[in-house]
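re: ur question from earlier - yeah i can do the single chain one, its not a big deal. heres the input i used so u can compare w yours
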Amino acid sequence: MGQRLNRCLDVPAALPPLRRRLLLLLIMLFLWLYMFYSCAGSCAGLPARGSPAPPPPRAPDEPRSPISSFASGAGAKRLPQAVIIGVKKGGTRALLEFLRVHPDVRAVGAEPHFFDRNYERGLAWYRDLMPRTLEGQITMEKTPSYFVTKEAPARISSMSKGTKLIVVVRDPVTRAISDYTQTLSKKPDIPTFESLTFKNRTTGLIDTSWSAIQIGIYAKHLENWLLYFPIGQILFVSGERLITDPAGELGRVQDFLGLKRIITDKHFYFNKTKGFPCLKKAEGSSKPHCLGKTKGRTHPNIDQEVVQRLRDFYRPFNMKFYQMTGQDFGWD
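and the output i got, formated as tokens:
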């Protein structure tokens, strides 16, 4: 290179001064262009002077922190892959709060009521209600009234035939009394439980048009769901065992959803005042968390003759429900 440069600069002295200067300028311009294009390829990846060096690329298998991902707006809103479809006053709120402790579960807090009240708004509206999820995480929602809504099974199947369904069931007599207690707290002047239970108390004819009674006929509602979903795609959670053995029931739910069993006994403690289990740490918190004061209300005293008549009424429906699900919930 040095010899070539010397030869290039060896301008004949016999040339006139003006032509000699022009020739030198052309040679210098040529050398400058040569050096510029030679450097362009090798210097392209270098940072500009004074600018910070780019961060090293992330390895393909290096996991992204969920916290940093959500903080930066990563993830996408997806339609739910699993839905808690019922039942009212069965323990659906407790189940959802317990499940939200799992890092791979993201759920809507409020009940969307999409498949029963807001279906005309469309799936885009429904999806927009969902939280952002990363790949591998499950999007969930819960609306207990879906289980007794005639149109809900077909609508959910239309969204996705692979949707996993969860039903939290409870002794239908206790559930009916709990349902009535909730209504009584909002409308203290409603008729007594006993008077609402019967069309005619003398004949003992149960009023199945009263929603508190009608919801507990689980076998009837399940028949509608089995027209659209196989029984293996529906998980039935015991509301009673959710209180006495929350970790055991949550283990079944995690298995059903294909999740690692992260929620265990260590996450719960039993609150004697409320009469049900609470979380030692809630989602995104380091403090204990119990369901609000609207849960665990004290039930009014109900005439035991009425309670027994209701048990007799529900017994054949319960037996059929046990056969359909392959589970004995021990309500009789």
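The longest strand covers residues 164-169. not sure if urs matches, ping me
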